[in-house]
Design brief:
Blueprint lengths: L3 H23 L5 H16 L15 E4 L5 H11 L5 H5 L29 H20 L11 E6 H5 L1 H13 L4 E7 L2 E2 L2 E2 L8 H8 L2 E5 L5 H12 L5 E6 L14 H4 L4 H10 L12 H7 L1 H23 L1 H12 L16 E6 H15 L3 E5 L3 H4 L18 E3 L4 H14 L3 E7 L3 H13 L5 E5 L17 H6 L5 E3 L4 H13 L5 E4 L4 E4 L16 E6 L6 E5 L3 H14 L4 E5 L3 H5 L3 H7 L7 E4 L8 H4 L4 E3 L10 H7 L4 H16 L1
Parallel strand pairs: 1-2, 2-3, 3-7, 6-7, 9-10, 9-11, 11-12, 12-14, 13-14, 17-18, 17-19, 19-20
Antiparallel strand pairs: 4-5, 8-15, 16-18
Helix pairs in contact: 1-2, 1-3, 1-12, 2-3, 2-9, 5-7, 5-17, 7-17, 13-14, 15-20, 17-18, 21-26
Length: 672
């Protein structure tokens, strides 16, 4: 009989060299992390991680996050070895066009990949979101007889992850919330791209995490499977999140590159890789060698996983018998299905020239939705009263009160973004987070990853222009809308009034294949008279004709989003009084409009009406695609200033008089 320890040792070597072969075969990639953390990964995946390779989406699986996503061949090797639908051929096509094994893990591309990782620190924060989701769902649905939601989040994190500021934010919140299902193994190899971490990273990392409220454990030899196993068991027994600091060696086994930065992001080369294999008696050829008994050892995961899921299904059947209503609700949420009538009872706002801020309307709509969407969990980066994100009739999530529906993220915009993505990835919760639009710059990496990963994360931003007033240019977004509209697969919606705000929320909730970003005003804007103007439901098509003014056919189109819509209405009325025909277009979402068929787009913006004027309380970049060569944009091409909002709009030309003057120029140019 084969010695189990000998099988174990060869299993670790299989992970190590399978990953290195993938990098060498592609002549591209990062061999250092996989070779150094092979034993850590083996211990997690064979002794602790509950998963079913035949059903990667099993609801109660443990989650594994490779936060150092550059080491992706480690994850792909594990997925193949344990029986996921990742073939040896897929490993051989690592980093190649059309493969399911891209350079960094991408959720949705590769079966078994839980989260898109690569930008360091973000996987760490995603895991916090997953653990938060698990805690919330467990507190909401578990019964003493049936802890139907009960799983862990494991991650391998790196020096680079711990250097990133987002990690400090996320770790601080995780410690405060006592997310004890969070177990991170730290690849403490003390090497970064520039060289030794002594160049820039010398604090006591363990003491830092202890101060955050984490349990900190140490494994002196990151290749010692038994020590790793004991540390993970100790982590499971503690109510705090755990960081296991494992002393490792980057590029372990490479004769001249181990413990050097050369092992990080370069193929080892045939000579170096063959020498590493020879030193431990591993065949130099063929590449991608997997001993049959080792593969059988790993493939036990198929039987284990099937049994774990079978037992959970039996538990769920008992749970369903005990409480069929609760079981049906949990099933619905995990499937991502919206309940019947979720969009009923949305507020309808009466016409009001004084109106209200769209952030205030958003708060009312949000609470109406929350009453019919119990899975909706809101939050803010310490701006709750400004963002109007609080949900009535609930409480905040805190230690021992995980069934709340509000997260106080603190002043941690960067971490909030990735935590929101982690919650969304977990499934069972509709997650939204709020801050000021100018701070979207803190959130941008997470917003981008939510779009890349097709996550229906909800991004709420208030104080959306210079209209916020006296706080001045540090808080006045000027370029943010243009920058956010540039992100592929992100729907940016900036409603013009309270009723468009209600429709914007409905559009955001309904979208399940990508994120939606909602931008709201601080200042009041008129609530439009919808008997005079087109229904606000036109928002769902991105842009729509509010009205054609004047006694003649439209000769010019005025278009805008958000607070500027009331401005083009005022200007349009003046132009109509002068005898011009004016088309008013509310343009809350470029992305939704671009998704419409060409007939609708031509209906809203006929080619026959060449004078087109857009108005934007920010930079004009991007509007030219709608205004055309003979159009123009009234915009702000500089930073704002500290003054009351009305004064700022006057000084920057955001007035009806200036819009009319610019329209005259366009009309005169066309007439001549």
């Amino acid at each position: 009989m084969t010695d189990p320890k000998e099988i174990q040792q060869r299993a670790v070597q299989t992970i190590r060299f399978l990953a290195a072969d993938g990098v060498q075969n592609a002549n591209s990639g990062h061999p250092g992390l996989p070779m150094g953390t092979a034993a850590m990964a083996y211990t997690i995946w064979t002794r602790h991680l509950h998963f079913n390779p035949q059903n990667p989406q099993w609801a109660n699986r443990d989650r594994f996050v490779l936060s150092g996503g550059h080491g992706s061949m480690l994850l792909y090797s594990l997925l193949h070895l344990t029986g996921f639908a990742v073939s040896l051929d897929d490993l051989m096509h690592f980093r190649q066009w059309g493969s399911i094994t891209p350079g960094h893990p991408e959720v949705g591309q590769t079966p078994g990949v839980e989260v898109t990782t690569g930008p360091l620190g973000q996987g760490f924060a995603n895991g916090v979101g997953m653990a938060l989701a698990e805690a919330h769902l467990a507190a909401t649905f578990n019964t003493p007889e049936n802890p139907i939601i009960d799983h862990y989040v494991y991650a391998i994190v790196t020096d680079g992850d711990l250097m990133e500021g987002v990690t400090a934010e996320a770790a601080s919140l995780a410690g405060h919330l006592q997310l004890g299902k969070l177990i991170y193994l730290y690849d403490d190899n003390r090497i970064s791209i520039d060289g030794s971490t002594e160049l820039s990273f010398t604090e006591d990392r363990g003491a830092r995490f202890q101060a955050y409220g984490w349990q900190v454990l140490h494994v002196e030899d990151g290749n010692d499977v038994e020590a790793l196993d004991q540390a993970i068991q100790a982590a499971k027994a503690d109510p705090r999140p755990s960081l296991i600091i494992c002393r490792t060696h980057i590029g372990y086994g490479l004769p001249t590159r181990q413990d050097t930065s050369k092992a990080h992001g370069e193929p080892p080369g045939d000579e170096e890789l063959n020498a590493a294999k020879s030193r431990v008696g591993w065949p130099e050829q063929p590449r991608f060698f997997i001993p049959e008994d080792v593969l059988a050892h790993f493939r036990q995961a198929l039987q284990r996983g099937a049994q774990w899921e079978k037992e959970w299904n039996q538990q769920f059947a008992a749970y369903k018998k005990q409480d069929p209503q609760k079981a049906a609700e949990l099933h619905r949420r995990l499937q991502g299905e919206l309940p019947a009538g979720w969009d009923q009872d949305l507020p309808v706002f009466p016409a009001d020239p004084k109106g209200m801020a769209t952030r205030a309307a958003s708060g009312k709509v949000l609470n109406a939705l929350a009453a019919r969407l119990p899975e909706l969990v809101s939050g803010s980066a310490d701006l709750t009263p400004s963002n109007n994100t609080w949900l009535a009739n609930t409480h905040a999530i805190q230690p021992g009160a995980y069934d709340g529906r509000y997260v106080h993220y603190g002043v941690r915009e960067h971490a909030m973004g990735y935590i929101l993505n982690g919650i969304t990835l977990h499934k069972g919760i509709i997650a939204l987070g709020g801050t000021f639009l100018v701070f979207a710059d803190y959130n941008r990496p997470a917003i981008r990853l939510s779009a890349l990963s097709h996550l229906p994360t909800l991004w709420l931003f208030t104080h959306d222009s210079i209209g916020l007033g006296e706080d001045g240019p540090t808080h006045q977004p000027v370029e943010q809308l243009a920058a956010l509209r540039a992100i592929p697969n992100l729907n940016v919606i900036r409603p013009a009034d309270a009723n468009e705000t209600a429709e914007a929320w409905a559009a955001a909730i309904r979208r399940r294949n990508g994120p939606t970003l909602l931008a709201f005003t601080r200042q009041n804007v008129p609530t439009l008279d919808r008997e005079r103007f087109a229904p606000a439901s036109g928002l769902h098509r991105g842009a729509y004709v509010l009205a054609d003014l004047g006694d003649v056919a439209p000769q010019i189109i005025l278009m805008a989003s958000g607070s500027e819509v009331s401005l083009i209405i005022e200007a349009g009325e003046q132009l109509a009084a002068e005898g011009y025909g004016v088309r008013l277009v509310s343009f809350p979402s470029w992305e939704l409009f671009d998704a419409q068929d060409s007939d609708y787009q031509k209906h809203v913006l006929p080619r026959s009406i060449e004078p087109r004027l857009a108005v934007e309380a920010g930079i004009k970049m991007g509007w030219e695609r709608y205004t055309g060569q003979k159009g123009a944009v009234v915009s702000i091409e500089t930073f704002g200033a500290s003054a009351p909002a009305k004064k700022l709009f006057e000084e920057y030309g955001l007035t009806a008089a200036n819009v009319v003057a610019q329209a005259h120029q366009l009309l005169g140019f066309i007439e001549n």
